[in-house]
Automatic annotation (TrEMBL):
Species whose genome carries this gene: Streptomyces lividans TK24
Organism domain of life: Bacteria
Listed name of the protein: DUF397 domain-containing protein
InterPro entries linked to this entry: DUF397
Domain (DUF397): residue spans on this chain: 13-65
Length: 69
């Protein structure tokens, strides 16, 4: 197993929101945490709720698609 394949414990993820996000509470946005193997995504209002993880290629395509709008 390489370092890229090593699972990351959820408590070890460094979550952040976009600098464009509203700073008031509760904020309606997503948070992301990047690791070598995946980009993890969660709802900022439900940090203990469900999470989504996608590979870096998928995340890059998603971000590029949002910028094209």
């Amino acid at each position: 197993m390489t370092g890229k394949d090593t699972p990351v414990h959820p408590a070890d993820l460094a979550w952040f929101k976009s600098s464009y996000s509203d700073t008031s509470e509760p904020s309606d946005c997503v948070e992301v945490a990047a690791t070598p193997a995946a980009v993890h995504i969660r709802d900022s209002k439900r940090p203990d709720g469900p999470r989504l993880a996608v590979d870096s290629v998928t995340w890059t395509m998603f971000v590029a698609g949002t910028l094209a709008e």
